[in-house]
Amino acid sequence: MTQKIRTRIAPSPTGFLHLGTARTALFSWAFARHFGGDFVLRIEDTDVARSTQESVEQILQAMHWLGLDYDEGPFYQMQRLERYQAVVEQMLAAGTAYRCYCTPEELDAMREAQKARGEKTGYDGRWRPEPGKVLPPVPEGVKPVVRFRNPAEGDVTWNDLVKGPITINNREIDDLIILRPDGVPTYNFAVVVDDWDMSITHVFRGDEHVNNTPWQINIFRALGAPLPQFGHVPVILGDDGLKLSKRRGAVSVTAYEEMGYLPEAMLNYLARLGWSHGDDELFSREQLVSWFDGEHLSKSPAQWDAAKLAWVNAQYLKQADDGRLVTLAADQLRRKGVAVSDAQVTPAHCALFKDRCTTTADLADWLAMYFGPVAPSAEEVAQHVTEAVKPALLALAARLATVDWEKAAINQAIKETIAEHGLKMPQLAIPVRVLVCGRAQTPSVDAVLSLFDRKIVIDRLQAL
Questions:
Q1: Less Cβ crowding at N or C end of the chain, within 10 Å?
Q2: What is the Cβ-side half-sphere exposure of residue 77, based on CA atoms within 13 angstroms?
Q3: Contact 53, 99 (CB under 8 A)
Q4: What is the rounded distance in angstroms from the CA atom of residue 102 to the CA atom of residue 180?
Q5: What are phi and psi of 177, to 5 degrees?
Q6: Does residue 434 have a pLDDT over 80?
Q7: In this predicted structure, what is the pLDDT of residue 89?
Q8: How far apart are CA 62 and CA 104, in angstroms?
Q9: What is the 3-state secondary structure (H, E, C) of the chain?
């Protein structure tokens, strides 16, 4: 490819960055990085009533967490109104756009009449200039919209990067409003001007935009602007088989951060939703960039699988640096209301428990016993902390008061107590776990105890 590749992601700040948009951003980013191109972030904020600064900040936070670094932007459409209006004036002068004075009531009546006749609803072209046509008188007090003069005949055809050749007849689409009475452009117009001005070469987006593409291609052509290549990615389906979306069932990207998922795991999982590289399930960002050339994108909807995401995250958690997990686990503990500093959590804590965890929230659940009280269930206490074993527990507490506070010495104290009281290891180890950890199952009991403050262990053993 001789032309420099330039891709973009253009979310609307009317809510959080949801998973479908995050996946599209990932594909656009990986494609640009693969070819040494540029990745642009644009905020499509022309829906003034619903756009919020909070949503903008959440989008930027989600992009940062996923590591989707952009080369330019963020650009905001509401800061480009003069540019859109200037292009509209050029189109009015060239005859590729015209003013329409239909009131909302007239448009409603037009649609109702079309329905009554069994026709497809759409703008009927009453203000569209034609040779020899007499237009209605301009009504007083009505601010016009500006409509694009869509070609009346012919087809729009493009070779979609995902779906292959697509053709839509121009008679299927009407004269689109491109500028509202308040001077704010509509989506299908603004996106064309933006992609033109920003020299976007490849557009990856959800396949709900397929029906917008003919209008956009016709506007590009009317402007004499170079056409980008389009790739429409199938939707992501939820557990119920319906589309995940911002308004239905989707969870924000940042919510997964809060739930304790690692960004590299989310990136890996999102990449595999609708794209594959052989049978590879786990791969690094560098491998993704190396492999992602725009091929092998699926034409079929992808199924969100929470269990598969959890498995992927667990694999990354096992490999994660323990020092890095300290900060993540401490953050999760504070989310759970446990007052703890990063310094109190150690790499040894994380190393001991991470293989048993799916998320850093799970890790925090394990570590909470070190930094706050435990509440073993009455059933486990009754089952394991029996009258027969209580003398051994008190004897162990006495031994632990004087040994070196490290795993080997703790292990030796447990063995001596077992021998002294004629017990087997589980008969003592499980009650110790219940009292000290609040649960009957943990990793090796000597390793678990060695990470506690000695006084906490002794106090919990003696509180029979």
A1: N
A2: 28
A3: no
A4: 12
A5: -70, 130
A6: yes
A7: 98
A8: 39
A9: CCCCCEEEECCCCCCCCEHHHHHHHHHHHHHHHHCCCEEEEEECCCCCCCCCHHHHHHHHHHHHHHCCCCCEEEEEHHHCHHHHHHHHHHHHHHCCEEEECCCHHHHHHHHHHHHHCCCCCCCCCCCCCCCCCCCCCCCCCCCCEEEECCCCCCEEEEEECCCEEEEEEHHHCCCCEEECCCCCECHHHHHHHHHHHCCCCEEEEEHHHHHHHHHHHHHHHHHCCCCCEEEEECCEECCCCCECECCEECCEHHHHHHCCCCHHHHHHHHHCCCECCCCCCCCCHHHHHHHCCCCCECCCCEECCHHHHHHHHHHHHHHCCHHHHHHHHHHHHHHCCCCCCHHHCCHHHHHHHHHHCCCHHHHHHHHHHHHCCCCCCHHHHHHHCCCCCHHHHHHHHHHHCCCCCCHHHHHHHHHHHHHHHCCCHHHHHHHHHHHHHCCCCCCCHHHHHHCCCHHHHHHHHHCC
Q: Which residue has the tokens 């979609």?
A: 160
Tokens 């394991």, residue located: 384
Query: How far is residue 39's CA from residue 25's CA, in Å, rounded to a whole number?
Result: 9
pLDDT band at residue 248, thresholds of 50, 70 and 90? low
| Residue 300: per-residue pLDDT | 94
Contact by Cβ (8 Å): 385, 435? yes
CA 455 and chain centroid, separation: 44
pLDDT of residue 247: 56
351 or 246: whose pLDDT is higher? 351
Instruction: Write down the pLDDT at residue 21.
Output: 93
Report the first-to-last Cα separation within the chain, whole angstroms: 74
Pairing of strands 145-148, 97-100: antiparallel
Q: What φ, ψ does residue 134 adopt, rounded to 5°?
A: -95, 120
Strands 302-303 and 236-237: parallel
Q: Please state, in angstroms and rounded to a whole number, the distance separating the CA atoms of residues 182 and 307.
A: 48
- Active-site residue 246, yes or no? yes
Please check whether residue 239 is in contact with residue 306, taking contact to mean a CB–CB distance below 8 angstroms: yes
In this structure, are residues 363 and 331 in contact, taking their beta carbons and an 8 Å threshold? Answer: no
Beta bridge partners of 177: 147
Closest CA to 150 of 222, 254, 61, 100: 222
- From the candidates 246, 299, 318, 415, which is the catalytic residue? 246
Report the phi/psi class of residue 95: left, alpha or beta, with left for phi > 0 and alpha for psi in -120 to 50. Answer: left
